[in-house]
Amino acid sequence: MQNALEPIQSMETLITDLRYAVRRLAQRPGFAVIAMLTIALGVGANSAIFSIVNAILLRPLPVESPDRLVEIYSQEGDEEPVTQAYPDYLDIRARDDLFSGVTAYTVDFFSVDMGQEPEVMLGESVSGNYFEVLGVPWPSSVTPFGIDVSPPIPPSWARC
């Protein structure tokens, strides 16, 4: 049977230990500062790493059906897989019995002028139905054309 005074005694012990710790840290302020900075750095790094892992690995993609998304590559023999060419994308998209929707994208660098000096940023060139297939609304910064205006340029077609 547990003693009714045990939680109170535990709290008194905790308070006594905290007073002792504060007295000891006050005797060595340099050590106290380094210890607090180390703890703060550890907590901050842990929080940052968890935020990245949570955003990338734990949280599902913010699209309509993330479990139904596939990415199509070509591979011949033991070679590394490569992305599809634009004509292949058109052929796959024309076969409406294969997928409920097909979209194309390529990652590219863009020069963005934000008023001061142009910046080079990483982005994607996407087909006109990109957001519709993913089931997400158009971003306010993108002009919706609703059609394929120009073929996305796979990295192998990039200008040198």
Per-chain topology:
Layout: H1 6-27, H2 29-58, E1 73-74, E2 82-83, H3 86-94, E3 105-112, E4 119-126, H4 130-134
Antiparallel strand pairs: 1-2, 3-4
Summarize the structure.
Helix content is 41%, strand content 12%.
Provide a descriptive summary of the structure in words.
With 160 residues, this protein is of the alpha+beta class. It is 41% helix and 12% strand. It has four helices and four strands, in the order H-H-E-E-H-E-E-H. The longest helix has 30 residues, at 29-58. It is elongated and about 75 Å long.
Which structural class should the secondary elements be placed in? alpha+beta
| H/E series | HHEEHEEH
What about the largest sheet? 2 strands, antiparallel
N- and C-termini, Cα separation:
80 Å
Strand residue content: 5-15%
Unreliable residue runs: 145-150, 153-160
What is the global morphology? elongated
The averaged pLDDT comes out at 80
Please provide the count of β strands. 4
Please state the CA-atom Rg, rounded to the nearest Å: 28 Å
Order of adjacent strands in the largest pleated sheet? 1-2
Provide a count of the helices. 4
> In percent, how helical is the residue content?
40-55%
